[in-house]
Amino acid sequence: NAGVTQTPKFQVLKTGQSMTLQCAQDMNHNSMYWYRQDPGMGLRLIYYSASEGTTDKGEVPNGYNVSRLNKREFSLRLESAAPSQTSVYFCASSASGVTLNEQFFGPGTRLTVL
Amino acid sequence: SQQGEEDPQALSIQEGENATMNCSYKTSINNLQWYRQNSGRGLVHLILIRSNEREKHSGRLRVTLDTSKKSSSLLITASRAADTASYFCATLRSSNTGKLIFGQGTTLQVKP
User: Fold this and answer.
1) Is the pLDDT of residue B1 over 50?
2) Is the CB of residue A41 less than 8 Å away from at least one CB of chain B?
3) Distance CA A97, CA A39 (A)
4) With the C-alpha atoms ordered B80, B82, B87, B90, is the resulting torsion angle positive or negative?
């Protein structure tokens, strides 16, 4: 039982390049999330998927797109990377439900945009 | 905007001492959760307290919630060097569809 996995672990991009961050969970969770973490900013929600087939914007969605490929997988795409997108990106999942929502996190992807 | 504000931002104590971290939030909540993050790792869920609860224990962790003051505290008793990490509070708003809002975190250093 791997929990939440993310690939790649590290990535360096040049401004304007595109890339997709992959996330998969094997806990049969309905909800999945993408966050970015910057020094002194805590975690900020980029996009989330409450259930398979649905996605919605979070706090900082500009410059990103997501795809909920199936129940297990939720990808984050940067179409044209900018230095402001240098960050650590975390994927998380939860069983869903408004009343609980304990989240399980992946190990993160450290992205640098030059 | 951030829902949770944590205090202090950094805390350094000796092994065996207790560590207290505080979290304040702005809107009414369904529950409040605490997470730990070791350096270079993802977050790990520690404890969840519902809005109708005032205190909760889990091992060496004690969490209190005061909804009238919109604040929570996390107490780690008899701290160990392995407790060195960043600790984040996260709130699930009453009107929310399941999105957690995280605070900026408290960095705890426990010196052996």
Assistant:
1) no
2) yes
3) 30
4) negative
